[in-house]
């Protein structure tokens, strides 16, 4: 399993992504607070989650949380599966990361040109001329 992206963790902890980002951050908190039976030296990730929430700009705290999540995922298959699901959902939150490039090319256009600007479109977009 890939480690949880530090940039994603800091963005969500800092409140990026609006309501969806806050929900994703809270869901991660619920995930790390689930009971975890392991050696006392192994963190559940909760302390690191709380610390990053208090200081979201401290990248070192995000690295600590990412490491704690990776260790716990290696020891707990159910947690690993839930963390993978969480990551897939959290990556869809608009946190301001990434770029959008728009271009129109391929010939000469006459009349109106429909322009759709955005990021992370899923599924087909269909533009039909209304008459």
Shape: elongated
Give the proportion of residues in helices.
Answer: 40-55%
Oligomer: single chain
Number of helices: 5
**Biggest sheet, in brief?**
none
Number of strands: 0
- Broad structural category: mainly alpha
The N- and C-terminal alpha carbons lie at a distance of 51 Å
- Rg is 20 Å
Mean pLDDT: 83
Residue stretches low in confidence (pLDDT < 50, at least 5 long) are none
Order of helices and strands: HHHHH
Q: What percent of residues are in strands? A: under 5%
Task: Show the helix and strand layout.
Blueprint: H1 6-13, H2 18-32, H3 46-54, H4 59-75, H5 77-90
Report on the architecture of this protein.
The chain has 131 residues and is mainly alpha-helical. It has a domain of 85 residues. It has five helices and no strands. α1 packs across α2, α2 packs antiparallel against α5 and α3 runs antiparallel to α4. The longest helix is centred in the middle third of the chain and has 17 residues. The chain is elongated, with a radius of gyration of 20 Å. It starts with 5 loop residues before the first helix and ends in a 41-residue tail after the last helix. The model has no long low-confidence stretch (mean pLDDT 83).
